[in-house]
Amino acid sequence: MPSERRLWTREELILTLSVYFQLPFGRLNRTTPEVKELAELLGRTDSSAALRLVNFAACDPYIINSGRKGMVAGMSVCLPVWEEFAGDRERLFNEAQRIKASLLHQTLEESLQLTPQELVGKERETVIRQRVNQSVFRTMVLSNYEDRCAITGINIPELLVAGHIIPWADSTPQQRLCPENGICLSALYDKAFDRGLITISPDDYTIRLSGALREYESQEYYNCHFGSLSGRKITMPIEHQPDRDFLAYHRDHVFVA
User: Fold this and answer.
1) 176-221: per-residue pLDDT in tens?
2) 3-state DSSP assignment of residue 36
3) 103 and 179 co-located in one domain
4) What is the model's pLDDT at position 3?
């Protein structure tokens, strides 16, 4: 039986904070699958894991400034880990993955489902860090958009992509794992967004089409897949809205106007 009486270790708190950053505030409860998975991994009850998550919410200025509240009682246990990692999420997520692998008695490669072929000719630590970042960012963004494309509403996981608004290569380390720099799109529209054929207005979150895309107006598919989208507002996420400055960057530096 899981025990709630033992003290929480630093490693347990790191894992919990990692999960906290991947879930919207409204899903920090004991019935959420990710919370139940965390509880099982730690050998604790679902309620105990959920309580620690809302303790971290009480440390979070984003939540506090929005007028919401976490669970203040017990937050002192979480605050040192929050202060250590909140400003360096990449280190947090990579450390959490190492702890998770150890608890599962797996290698890092096994826990990330990395094949030997994916490591050939590459630096192991770089590949592992990239895979961790990709996995965390995808979970974070898809959860934020309730596993639906912001343009079409498609909710087939295999067709969804967690895309960066400011491209990864142009992002600062803080922006790369920032949920406000992510948008959930189905594969077609993610590619169009990535190539600058469409953008999202930072003023009203409506879709704009590039002149390069309008060259295909005569094609039968154009109106169905693109023309009908012009001026339509995207479906907004439940928590972290796309940052207007990030969208302005995409419009000014990626969009093929």
Assistant:
1) 999 999 999 999 999 999 999 999 999 999 999 999 998 999 999 9
2) helix
3) no
4) 47
The answer to whether 111 touches 101, Cβ cutoff 8 Å, is yes
Cα–Cα distance for residue pair 121/13, rounded to 1 Å: 35
* Alpha carbons 154 and 148: distance in angstroms, whole number: 5
pLDDT at 23 over 90: yes
Pairing of strands 160-164, 207-209: unpaired
Instruction: Write out the two tokens for 82.
Output: 């929050």
Domain count, the chain: 2
> Do 108 and 150 lie in a common domain?
no
Smallest Cα–Cα separation from 181: which of 254, 117, 111?
254
Which helix (H) or strand (E) segment is 126 a member of? helix 124-144
**Cα gap 205→191, rounded to integer Å:** 18
Q: Which residue has the tokens 């343009």?
A: 151
- Count of other CB atoms within 10 angstroms of residue 183: 27
> Do residue 17 and residue 111 come from a single domain?
yes
Do 86 and 161 belong together in one domain? no
Residues 106 and 165 reside in one and the same domain? no
**Within a domain: residue 126?**
no
Rounded CA-CA distance 41/10 in Å is 15
The token pair that represents 190 in the structure block: 């993610």
